[in-house]
């Protein structure tokens, strides 16, 4: 009997060790703490969606601007106006937040405001908040089916870190002009743009449903396809232009600047797709096109896709001998079927699409759109993300985390 018990104990001990070993290898790093900034009133009622996050270092002050759409219901056609909360970031990554404020100047009469996308011009310290305005009750689907764009390209600006905002500027005619006749609809971002370190060029990511073919002067829905591109300015926001599009079908996108080991600058675009994986495109910064495009097999998409965020940051000092000066961080739901388990991925060799590491899940459960920012002076990343208990549109929450946590989680 003693031998039998001993044998059982030995097997139990071996099984326990195996379980501990397996669990030790598989146990994920705990997600960062969340602070809810925007809360849905009730299911089907007032809802906040489409996050945009900006970080500003001003002397000893560290400022965060969290912007989102306010909607009367979760539906796109019920978007109303943009709202903002201003945060004071502390050294430990926590923040104190102001109350919700409506950005009333970010609007056109009888239009709804959508897709906030912020870019900061650092020399003049000007914030440009880009967005689109669409006539109320006109959906994206209606525009695509009719092949007739109804969206307007607009922005407001601030020179005092978001305290006061200018009147709205409508750039539709001056920037897009006659090209609009080939656009079924378009939008910016959403999320954030960037200013290139190499040249000071301002870039606002965007996408267009382009009409590739018309039949008897009428658009053919079969030949209306989405393509990512960007608006850009080479004179600090005085005038704006349009880049060439990504060749592959691609929609909502964000961009980052990649500096390689030879100090060459590249514009990297990461875009939504309905083909099961994200679309990546790269072009040289001194041009306005993309000469390389591929599907990122390591970055999964849900059936209809979901917006994601990408940001470039300096490679750590430990990698100075490497062949890249820039690494990338990407945020997106990690589940291939549902919008849930939002995670962050690291790429140490951004010009190599196969180098994405396994994700660290920073928001388990329902989650969708997100926007990343890098607080360089603190070595912190911050993320504004959609999440909830039962549905991803219940809340928009703020999280922050150091690079060390990302590497610890993804290296395991």
TrEMBL record:
EC class name: hydrolase
GO biological process: ganglioside catabolic process; oligosaccharide catabolic process
Keyword Zinc-finger among record annotations: no
Protein name, as recorded: exo-alpha-sialidase
SUPFAM superfamilies noted in UniProt: Sialidases
Species annotation: Paramormyrops kingsleyae
Gene3D superfamilies from the UniProt entry: 2.120.10.10
Family: Belongs to the glycosyl hydrolase 33 family.
């Amino acid at each position: 009997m003693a031998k039998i018990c001993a044998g059982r104990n030995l097997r139990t001990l071996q099984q326990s060790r195996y379980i501990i070993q397996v669990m030790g290898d598989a146990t994920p790093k705990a997600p960062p703490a969340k602070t809810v900034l925007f809360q849905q009133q009730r299911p089907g009622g007032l809802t906040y969606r489409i996050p945009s996050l900006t970080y500003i270092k001003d002397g000893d002050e560290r400022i965060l601007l969290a912007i989102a759409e306010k909607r009367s219901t979760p539906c796109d056609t019920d978007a109303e106006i943009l709202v903002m909360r201003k945060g004071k970031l502390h050294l430990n990554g926590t923040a104190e937040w102001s109350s919700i404020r409506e950005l009333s100047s970010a609007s056109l009469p009888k239009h709804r405001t959508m897709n906030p996308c912020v870019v900061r011009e650092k020399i003049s310290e000007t914030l440009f908040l880009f967005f689109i305005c669409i006539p109320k009750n006109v959906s994206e689907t209606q525009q695509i089916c009719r092949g007739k764009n109804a969206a307007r390209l607009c922005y407001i600006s601030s020179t005092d870190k978001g305290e006061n905002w200018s009147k709205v500027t409508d750039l539709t005619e001056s920037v897009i002009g006659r090209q609009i006749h080939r656009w079924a609809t378009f939008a910016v971002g959403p999320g954030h743009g960037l200013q290139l370190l190499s040249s000071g060029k301002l870039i606002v990511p965007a996408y267009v449903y382009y009409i590739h073919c018309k039949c008897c002067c009428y658009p053919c829905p079969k030949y209306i396809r989405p393509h990512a591109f960007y608006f850009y300015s080479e004179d600090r926001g005085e005038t704006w232009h349009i880049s060439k599009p990504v060749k592959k079908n691609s929609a909502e996108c964000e961009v980052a600047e990649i500096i390689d080991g030879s100090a060459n600058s590249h514009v990297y675009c990461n875009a939504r797709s309905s083909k099961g994986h994200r679309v990546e495109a790269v072009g040289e910064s001194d041009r306005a096109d993309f000469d390389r495009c591929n599907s990122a097999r390591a970055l999964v998409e849900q059936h209809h896709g979901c917006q994601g965020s990408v940001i470039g940051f300096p490679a750590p000092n430990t990698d100075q001998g490497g062949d890249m000066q820039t690494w990338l961080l990407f945020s997106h739901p990690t589940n291939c079927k549902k919008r849930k388990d939002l995670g962050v991925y690291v790429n140490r060799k951004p010009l190599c699409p196969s180098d994405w590491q396994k994700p660290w899940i920073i928001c388990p459960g329902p989650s969708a759109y997100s926007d990343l920012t890098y607080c360089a002076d603190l070595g912190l990343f911050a993320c504004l993300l959609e999440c909830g208990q039962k549905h991803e549109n219940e809340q928009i929450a703020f999280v922050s985390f150091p690079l060390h946590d990302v590497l610890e989680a993804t290296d395991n």
